[in-house]
Design brief:
With 59 residues, this protein is mainly beta. It is 0% helix and 44% strand. A hairpin with a 5-residue loop joins strand 1 (2-6) and strand 2.
């Protein structure tokens, strides 16, 4: 399943159903699609999954 979300800048997106409000949406260096990252207690980041964000998919 997918989860509807809004970015801090007001863009609409669809991401993994396990997303949390504190997760980060970004395009990683060299990447082509937005991904959802979650910061872990030890300061590393875990990949939650890919996302679709209106206006970020154009390159």
């Amino acid at each position: 399943g997918r989860c509807l979300f809004f970015t801090d800048t007001g863009k609409i997106g669809l991401g993994p159903h396990i997303m949390q409000q504190v997760d980060i949406c970004c395009v990683l260096y060299g990447g082509h699609v937005p991904v959802i990252l979650r910061e872990m207690p030890n300061g590393t980041f875990r990949l939650v999954g890919e996302a679709y964000v209106e206006g970020m998919m154009d390159g």
